[in-house]
Design goal:
65 residues, 78% helix, 0% strand
Length: 65
């Protein structure tokens, strides 16, 4: 996939949403909700990575046999 496909798709989605939400205050609220959702999902993914990395370090491996 071309690296521009995802950003282009997101832009198209944002334009479609904005065209259907005429009230600017509602659009601001939706943007704030989506921003918080993205930040929270990033926090959860980061926490999972840290937990997985810690488990990987603590688990003995059979690589030496």
């Amino acid at each position: 996939m071309n690296e521009c496909c995802l950003p282009g798709g997101i832009t198209a989605l944002a334009c479609a949403i904005a065209n259907n939400i005429k009230n600017t205050d509602d659009l601001f609220m939706l943007a704030a909700i989506c921003g918080q959702l993205g930040s929270t999902l990033t926090t959860i993914a980061s926490q999972r990575t840290l937990i997985d990395d810690k488990k990987h370090i603590e688990e003995p491996t059979d690589d030496f046999y």
